[in-house]
Specification:
The complex is a heterotetramer. By secondary structure, chain B is of the alpha+beta class. Chain B has helices at about 10-20, 95-105, 115-120, 170-175, 185-200, 220, 225-230, 240-245, 285-305, 315-320, 330-335, and strands at about 1-5, 20-30, 30-35, 60-70, 75-80, 85-90, 120-125, 150-155, 160-165, 180-185, 250-255, 260-265, 275-280, 280. Chain B folds into two domains: about 1-50 and about 80-200, no CATH class; about 220-255 and about 265-335, no CATH class. In chain B, the strands form three sheets. An eight-stranded mixed β-sheet of chain B has the order 3-2-6-7-8-9-1-10, with helices on both faces. The chains are: A alpha/beta, B alpha+beta, C alpha/beta, D alpha/beta.
Chain lengths: ~280, ~350, ~325, ~140
């Protein structure tokens, strides 16, 4: 009998739970013997499940350069995520992966100035790339990060952003929140507008992730600034069950998000039918 | 080439069964369906089975794994069973072709071991379609119902069944049951095959063409206003997908038995409203979108990803079974703009 | 034999369209063969003239289509209803599932609809099916003409037709029929006369063929819930598959129970079942029991009647008395 | 497992206002009934959906009994009248499918009828014991 079965997962233990925002927690997952469950590349996903509750796909938010553990920043929105949010340290779950095509960090992105734009929980998949670029700092040019959320409390990974990213040389972090708030002296306004205000030069590669409406307007804004769609990458999410391109539900036209995605270049998305 | 007389088929089945379980179409209240051969069982005269033969490799439900949970701990139990060799007799050309389409899904990287374990163990004995039906249109997909392929190919002519091995597995299989068969020349079988090909040319759907479909046609058809009209009265049931030999979408679900959780896989249908429903919404909210997905997948997306092979084999089951008689032939003709004028 | 012709329906539909009474017509469109007609909404006279068909294969019950159809436009939709369809029409109205004001119902007489599955059992490779005298002639690809009597070709539900009377319409084509003295419970009685072991074996044989395609539910006019319990992940019974022999039993028992007292016995469930499961025998058992236990009741006979399961008397029989009394005193 | 060792698993749906109190009374009066009867308290016997009964069988029950207020005594005026109709039809349907009719039962037990509760349960357990294990409405996945 063939013993390799992609659908049979490994056991993972939650070794740390960090409360990021009122509805986002970051979970650290290791195998029971304290190792990383598998290696991955920036932008790839993993299937997490709780037996009896369900299985769902999450992007791996920790960088591949982190050899000790994997992290997942998860927003509470469905039954699996709700269950995870009440899980305690020591709880075991199951994990399989990695799935999907990663960001081309070792090819196209090499030597480029990078512009990361994220909204809300959209930072989760980008964090992996950002930290990867920080780790191999000399291989990439200037890094700009525009990140916005509803309020200061809804900024995921705020501590890491302030303590680490903001202190790195050559990294400019631009934070914004939707509405004015006490104790916030930073920028106020929506991400797409902020991107336009900042007026980036068009020699950068942009990576976008956030709610569909934010992506739509930011994409427009970047094009107004003179960016080509071939310079802009994003990552998508659709209903997935198998993660291996067989169960048949995550396709947009002939492309399967779990296999051909989740990372797409924006001009590739134009080629897809409007069903996402 | 070997032969057996139709009258001594039972002896042949018995000889096969002595080596491995044999499945063949047997008549029942639903029409013909594959059953395990037992003494007394008769091979159905029906052209095809009610449900397709995909069940052998991709059953409607299969338990994949079990979980034992204790406190915070989880144990994953591999409950896959060993599969031994088995034979399927009476597979028609369309279903035989459907296996190669399923192979492209399940045997592509990463290989689905559930499927592969069964596939590796099966001996497929096909039978040429002496009397193809009005609902048949396998010819449109380049399938020759007179030479159905598989491991062993059978042609029924002049009161005999002519058997020819098509693969090494088929040769070994025929060797095993050599005593139950006798040597034959190919003349009678070839004459029957020629007649079958003539009959196929005369079928009502013989002129159906796939020329207007294939990879790269997404833009051409996706936004067609015809989808609205075609899908308007679709009930959204899963009949077409479940009788279809090439529909392979599945769902993975957990079942709490009270003593642990079993994770099983079951057939799913893109026609169902919750097929793409996830926590934050659904991307295919109307039946039109779901209906379009099914046919675009077979006629455009699948060929695009699989060297221009269509995801349909023209078995005609959906033509016979759809509660509102909407089917891929009507879709092809309407979208293709032919004949309806 | 009283038949309504395709031309009479097209004429009526064209009249109503041009008078502005309706803005679209729910009818049938021809398929590839003589038997595969598809429900279709026509919106002009040209389309009607070109594509409208009506023959003995037009068996689909259009009542349920009205739920969706009424939401589509401000205008009225013309629907043709066979006598059995009018019962579902009334029942759906009782349940406030569509807007009666948006429908123009034309009752059409019916002498029974053909069951293509039955014809397939008798004739292989069907080129065409035509009405001849009181039966049908099936032209086949290989065996020449096969003659079938009406009984050999008609659907079971039509052979045990309960009523040729239309209980609802705005206009009637042809003459009104009568409620018939039907033998529709005879199969149920046969089952009741069996031993429990025989009954169990019978139903196991039938229900184990179920593939959970949900066609019976999706076509059923009484199954008009916006979210079926079997589709609701929170119900705990949401299952797409017959994961064990239990599941198919539960699905069919519960489905029959959910429509009990509201099922008009239109027979669509059995018509659409791809596995030929006689699902109507479950519904008819409930109908027969209801008649026997609580007095004759025909769902859909009149709009607004109170269904037996949302009603009671203080004198109702106890379940212990009910079981096995299935034979009831059928009036 | 031999027949004389067989102890059926029984699920009893008891109306909060009468039968559940009846069970309490049976307990207070030290009246015996088998411990294999698992009571599920429901606000009214008419809360019992046919699905509950089938699910109980699926998950391993050998018998299901529903206990409610006597007709006319329903806390909600008429709930148990509806129960009576529903269960009459459901039990008849189960019988029609060849499922042993002794596995399901509806009984009226008031808050004062501790003795009746205990007697009913004993009788029911006895009847189900005689039938043996539930095979016709079992879910194989839930078996050992």
């Amino acid at each position: 009998m063939n013993n390799q079965e992609p659908l049979i997962p490994k056991v993972g233990t939650i070794t740390d739970v960090r409360i990021d925002t009122p509805d986002v927690k970051t979970f650290r997952v290791l195998t029971p013997d304290g190792k990383k469950a598998f290696d991955h590349k920036p932008g790839q996903c993993a299937m997490l499940s709780i037996p009896g509750v369900g299985e769902a796909m999450f992007s791996i938010t920790s960088s591949p350069t982190n050899t000790e553990y994997m992290e997942f920043s998860i927003k509470k929105c469905g039954c699996v995520t709700e269950w995870l949010h009440q899980a305690e340290v020591g709880q075991q779950i199951t994990i399989r992966g990695p799935y999907g095509k990663p960001f081309p960090v070792d090819t196209v992105f090499k030597g480029q100035d990078m512009l990361f734009i994220a909204g809300g929980i959209g930072l989760a998949p980008l964090r992996s790339v950002i930290n990867y670029c920080r780790h191999y700092r000399d291989q990439y040019g200037k890094i700009d990060i525009v990140y916005g959320s509803r309020s200061k409390d809804d900024l995921v990974d705020y501590k890491e952003i302030i303590d680490e990213w903001c202190n790195d040389d050559g990294i400019n972090v631009h934070l914004t929140i939707d509405n004015p708030q006490e104790g916030w002296d930073g920028h106020v306004g929506f991400v797409p507008n902020y991107v336009k205000e900042l007026g980036f030069s068009t020699d950068k590669t942009a990576i976008l992730c956030g709610p569909p409406i934010m992506i739509k307007f930011t994409l427009q804004g970047l094009q107004d600034l003179g960016f080509e769609k071939t310079q802009i990458y994003t990552t998508m999410e659709l209903k997935m069950k198998c993660g291996v391109g067989k169960c048949g539900r995550c396709n947009i036209g002939a492309k399967y998000v779990c296999k051909d995605g989740p990372v797409f270049r924006c001009d590739e998305i134009d080629e897809l039918p409007d069903e996402y | 080439m070997r032969k057996i007389s139709l009258d001594s088929l039972a002896a042949f089945f018995e000889a096969v069964s002595a080596n491995m379980p044999l499945y063949l179409p047997v008549d029942g209240k639903e029409g013909a369906s594959y059953k395990k051969w037992e003494p007394g069982a008769t091979y159905s005269k029906a052209l095809n089975t009610n449900k397709s033969a995909k069940d052998f490799f991709f059953p409607q439900v299969e338990n994949m794994m079990a979980f034992k949970t204790e406190g915070k701990n989880i144990e994953v139990l591999d409950i896959r069973e060993d599969v031994g060799p088995f034979a399927i007799f009476g597979v028609r050309a369309c279903d035989a072709k459907s296996f190669s389409i399923l192979d492209r899904v399940f045997l592509s990287d990463p290989v689905d071991s559930f499927y592969k374990n069964r596939r590796d163990n099966a001996v497929i004995i096909t039978v040429a379609c002496s009397r193809p039906l009005e609902t048949c249109f396998c010819k449109a997909f380049g399938i020759d119902a007179a030479a159905p392929g598989g491991d062993v190919e059978c042609v029924m002519a002049e009161g005999n069944v002519y058997l020819e091995a098509k693969t090494e597995k088929g040769e070994a299989f025929l060797k095993q049951v050599e005593a139950a068969t006798e040597a034959a020349d190919a003349k009678a079988a070839e004459a029957e095959q020629a007649k079958i090909r003539e009959r196929i040319e005369k079928l009502p759907l013989a002129s159906l063409s796939t020329d207007r479909f294939g990879g790269g046609k997404t833009k051409e058809y996706f936004d067609s206003p015809l989808w609205e009209e075609l899908s308007a009265n679709c009930l959204g049931c899963g009949t077409c997908t479940f009788v279809c030999p090439t529909c392979q979408c599945y769902d993975i679900k957990d079942y709490n038995t009270g003593k642990g959780v079993q994770r099983f896989r079951c057939w799913d249908s893109c026609m169902y409203s919750d097929f793409t429903k996830m926590a934050h919404g659904n991307i295919r909210n109307s039946q039109k979108e779901r209906f379009r997905q099914r046919f675009m997948h077979k006629l455009v997306y699948f060929p695009e990803n699989n060297d221009e092979i269509f995801g349909c084999v023209g078995c005609g089951r959906c033509l016979a079974k759809c509660p509102i008689s909407m089917n891929i032939v009507k879709v092809m003709k309407t979208l293709g703009g032919a004949e309806r004028e | 034999m009283q038949r309504v012709t395709r031309d009479a329906l097209v004429k009526k539909a064209t009249e109503l369209l041009s008078a502005g009474t309706v803005d679209r017509v729910l009818g049938w469109r021809a398929g590839e063969f003589s038997y595969d007609v598809t429900p279709y909404v026509f919106s002009n006279a040209e389309a009607l003239e070109k594509d409208f068909v009506f023959d003995d294969f037009c068996g689909a019950n259009f009542s349920k289509y009205l739920i969706k159809e009424c939401g589509k436009s401000e205008g009225k939709v013309l629907v043709f209803l066979k006598p059995c369809d009018t019962y579902s029409f009334n029942q759906l109205q009782t349940e406030h599932r569509f807007d009666r004001e948006k429908v123009y119902a034309v009752g059409i007489p019916c002498e029974g609809m053909v069951d293509i599955t039955k014809i397939r059992e008798k004739a292989e490779g069907i080129s065409s099916v035509e009405v001849e005298d009181s039966g049908y002639v099936v032209k086949t690809l290989y065996d020449g003409d096969v003659k079938l009597t009406a009984e050999e070709a008609l659907a079971e539900r039509c052979l045990s037709c309960k009523s040729k009377k239309h209980v609802a319409y705005d206009e009637l084509l042809g003459e009104e029929g009568e409620v018939l003295d039907s033998n529709r419970f005879s199969e149920v009685e046969k089952l009741e006369a069996m031993t429990p072991d025989e009954r169990f074996a019978f139903w196991k044989g039938e229900l184990s063929r179920c593939i959970r395609c949900n066609a019976c539910r999706d076509v059923c006019p009484a199954c008009s819930c916006e979210k079926c319990v079997f589709d609701n992940p929170k119900s705990g019974v949401e299952n797409k598959a017959i994961a064990d022999s239990f599941e198919e039993k539960m699905f069919h028992i519960i489905r029959a129970f959910h429509v009990a007292g509201r099922c008009t016995d239109c027979g669509e469930c059995s018509r659409v079942c791809p596995q030929n499961i006689p699902l109507h025998l479950l519904n008819r058992k409930f109908i027969k029991d209801i008649n026997g236990f609580y007095g004759e009741y025909q769902a859909g006979e009149e709009v607004g009647s109170r269904a037996p399961l949302v009603n009671y008397t203080t004198e109702d029989l106890e379940p212990s008395e009910a079981v096995g009394k299935g034979d009831g005193e059928n009036a | 497992m031999s027949m004389n060792e067989f102890k059926p698993k029984i699920v009893a749906f008891c109306c909060n206002w009468c039968s559940y109190a009846g069970a309490d009374l049976a307990g207070n009066n030290r009246l015996n009934y088998p411990a294999d009867v698992k009571i599920i308290r429901v606000p009214c016997s008419c809360r019992v959906n046919p699905m509950f009964i089938l699910r109980a069988f699926q998950k391993g029950a050998d018998g299901v009994i529903i206990c409610g207020c006597h007709p006319g005594d329903c806390h909600y005026t008429s709930g148990n009248y509806y129960t009576r109709r529903r269960m009459a039809l459901l039990f008849s349907m189960l019988d029609y499918l060849g499922i042993e009719r002794e596995r399901t039962r509806l009984e009226w037990v008031s808050a004062a009828e501790g003795a009746k509760f205990s007697q009913t349960m004993n009788e029911f357990v006895e009847a189900v014991t005689a039938l043996g294990e539930n095979k016709r409405l079992e879910d194989l996945r839930c078996k050992e």
